[in-house]
């Protein structure tokens, strides 16, 4: 088989609701169960957002702590391993709150969104230079690997700036999130623009939002991506009109990878590929 392929599952995101799909995990217990199921299905990384008691996106440190603790305990009971990747996204929250869970939960990875976007033409996905500089410094101090999420082409130049000025450390791990309304399209032409602009020695993963989900997985495999990102944060359907579960989306990514001649990375192999430091044993 070819080089290892890292499958990441984004279990719920900030916006997917129970009204849209009953399969999205919302509570800490639901998230923990879904992460366990996805680890069994072949996911090496779990990207986690949290919700309040009403199911609304939040950045409550205590909820992150409960979710991480229950997830780690559930994995340990099953003798499973997965890399935890916590979000730092949340424009309406203070910078302090967006970073607090990194200190208290010590994940191996965190999201790093290197620019601001008019998200879906409806809201501002705000990531100020002050916040990005602080996130970069604190991630390095805590030895947490940033996953640099690219939603628009101009963010590639921002990555270069933050690397040059020491706020991001090479090698960079890019997560291309293609097909967000007001972002870069979910098609092959976007990859032809993005890939040549990566920092030398970088790794990269890809996802497509909604209908771009399957095409971007296939494009990523064709171009030799280091990883595929799947999950109900990005896409709620298995096929037109058929709602998916997170484990189903992971299983499909695994099958596609194997059909493309790729072997599927374990969590430990993902750590080696991405240069991660495991802070918490479970």
Describe the fold and architecture.
The structure is a single chain. The chain is an alpha/beta fold and 282 residues long. It has helices spanning 28-41, 61-77, 95-105, 129-142, 155-164, 188-194, 213-222, 246-259, 267-274; strands at 2-10, 45-48, 50-51, 57-58, 83-86, 109-112, 117-119, 123-125, 145-150, 173-178, 203-208, 227-230, 237-239, 242-243, 262-264. The strands form four sheets. An eight-stranded parallel β-barrel has the order 1-2-5-6-9-10-11-12, surrounded by six helices. Strands 3-4 form a two-stranded antiparallel sheet. It has a two-stranded antiparallel ribbon with strand order 7-8. β11, α7 and β12 (227-230) form a beta-alpha-beta unit.
Which keywords apply here?
two-stranded antiparallel ribbon; 9 helices; 37% helix; eight-stranded parallel barrel; 282 residues; alpha/beta
Entry summary:
This protein has 282 residues and is an alpha/beta fold. 37% of the residues lie in helices and 22% in strands.
Order of helices and strands: EHEEEHEHEEEHEHEHEHEEEHEH
Q: Which residues form runs of ≥5 with pLDDT under 50? A: none
Distance between the termini: 29 Å
Q: How large a portion of the residues is in β-strands, by DSSP E? A: 15-25%
In which order are the strands of the major sheet placed?
1-2-5-6-9-10-11-12
Q: Helix proportion of residues, in percent?
A: 25-40%
Mass-distribution shape:
globular
**Rg from Cα:** 17 Å
Q: Specify the structural class.
A: alpha/beta
